[in-house]
Specification:
about 50% helix; single chain; 16 strands; five-stranded antiparallel β-sheet; alpha/beta
Length: about 475
């Protein structure tokens, strides 16, 4: 392996402890890795939970029934009995190769739990900007030696709008996209694929009539995964996390026994939460809620000693929100305020015992939140709750290692939905690759995505993307699933 690629991988190991741990366990196959993750789910189920998860199941099932109908709702209800959800994705980022391969690895984890060709619940945070690194703003394409291509659907003025607050992709957006990338694109094969995807994913079955971009993503996601996998294969359901948790969030704001209620309204606990610092220097009080302005742009909020949420908007003007239960509930219903991922973790994992299988960042910060929350509760006399929360394994992840490469002319890149569209893959092939690909090789296959996430522009090596693509072509011929190696 070339020195440059080795240096890039070494830097990634230094930047993330989960990546470094994967190097130490490097010879383990991805199939065995899936078993390890499944064992974490089994462990957490044995721990028990503070609350029954049936209320969340009912909320997620009702949302699925509304968007997709009874059949999908019933399949989701069965899948949620396993008490495991994939939380690695960001809602709207359907064309990210890292997320696609993570979701398929999670499907293998579900198989280890006893679900053959499972129904895969992906609960994805929508509170990310459309132009986040996984690119909810449009399509990602990987069929280039030189770089990952970002092909926007949304105009640039919406780049910093949150996916959770975005309007659906419109027919006018698709028309503009066609003119720019289908009619006038340089690569004839990419033009054909993008044209087909526009037609089959968006220009049919009322997709343009979806109420929100998040609802539309659920509809498009079902069509997309159904096209990419051949034969008997898993189904993947994409739901926006914020929408699915809202009913139980509102219920807990009225329940004085809930942990969330006490964090917000018990002065002693609130002060301890503010004083308890995380490794990044922030406290749990900085991770409770976020707000959105009139353009759907995120505003960071902190809970102060008086129980008020405060922050600054994009104009650097101060904002404040009272948190009386009825006031906060109204703000949440209006989507002016929404729960941070910490609160979603509290509701689903720490209270209801639903294991989160996420990404390499999430597997680091969830244990940090776990430690801080348990310390706050214990110091406040809630020892039993603290002990139960400490007992969970929060290190599950599926997003990072990859197994499928797109084969170019002398280069190979991570294969995403655009690359697999014309050459769908059987899930049996996924199972085979998981058995033949080691955990560290999986991280090396995903190095271009990992390196991009763990570095900033100015420190990246010159021609880093090309160097990785050419090295992957030489090193992993058996992982090329496009074209002749299907």
């Amino acid at each position: 392996m070339t020195n440059g690629v080795i240096r890039m991988a070494e830097l990634c190991r230094q930047r993330n402890e989960m990546v470094n741990a994967s190097y130490a366990l490097g010879q383990m196959s991805l199939d065995s890795f899936a078993q390890v993750q499944a064992d974490k789910v089994r462990h957490n189920r044995q721990v028990g939970s503070l609350r029954d998860a049936s209320d969340f199941e009912a909320s997620a099932v009702a949302l699925t029934r509304k968007l997709l109908g009874d059949e999908d709702a019933e399949k989701l209800q069965d899948a949620l009995k396993e008490k495991a959800i994939c939380t690695a994705d960001h809602h709207g980022s359907l064309y990210c190769s890292q997320f696609l391969q993570s979701d398929l690895l999670f499907a293998l984890i579900m198989e280890k739990l006893g679900k053959r060709n499972p129904y895969v619940p992906v609960l994805a945070a929508g509170q990310v900007e459309l132009e986040n690194s996984t690119y909810s703003r449009g399509f990602s394409a990987y069929a280039s030696r030189e770089n990952k291509q970002f092909l926007p659907l949304f105009p640039a003025k919406y780049s910093v709008q949150l996916a959770s607050h975005a309007a659906p992709v419109s027919s006018e957006m698709i028309d503009r996209f066609r003119k720019r990338f289908v009619n006038d694109g340089e690569d004839p094969e990419l033009r054909r694929v993008l044209g087909e995807m526009c037609q089959e994913l968006y220009e049919s079955d009322g997709v343009f009539q979806a109420a929100t971009f998040s609802d539309q993503t659920t509809l498009v996601g079902k069509k997309l995964i159904g096209h990419l996998l051949t034969g008997e294969a898993p189904s993947v359901l994409y739901l926006e996390m914020e929408s699915a948790v809202q009913p139980i969030l509102l219920a807990e704001l009225e329940d004085e026994t809930s942990i969330l209620y006490r964090l917000l309204y018990n002065q002693e606990i609130r002060n301890r939460m503010i004083e308890t610092k995380l490794p990044d220097g922030l406290s749990l009080a900085d991770y409770l809620f976020r707000a959105a302005d009139e353009k759907g742009r995120k505003i960071m909020l902190s809970l102060n000693e008086e129980g008020v949420l405060t922050g600054h908007d994009w104009r650097k003007e101060p904002v404040r929100f009272e948190t009386a239960p009825d006031v906060l509930a109204s703000l949440i219903r209006e989507k002016r305020v929404f729960p941070d991922v910490f609160v979603e973790t509290l509701l689903l994992l720490f209270e209801r015992g639903i294991t989160w299988i996420g990404g390499m960042f999430q597997a680091v910060y969830l244990p940090q939140w776990q430690t801080a929350l348990a310390a706050v509760l214990e110091a406040s006399g809630s020892d039993a709750e603290a002990d139960l929360i400490r007992a969970y394994d929060c290190t599950g992840y599926s997003c990072g290692p990859m197994m499928m490469l797109y084969q170019g002319d002398g280069f190979a890149t991570t294969a995403g939905p655009v690359e697999l569209w014309r050459n769908p893959v059987s899930f049996e092939r996924i199972r085979e690759l998981a058995k033949s690909t080691s955990l560290w090789d999986g991280h090396m296959i995903g190095l271009s995505e990992m390196y991009f996430d763990l570095t900033v522009r100015d420190e990246r090596e010159e021609d880093w993307y090309r160097k990785i693509a050419e090295e992957l072509y030489r090193r992993y011929p058996e992982n090329m699933v496009s074209y002749e190696n299907q």
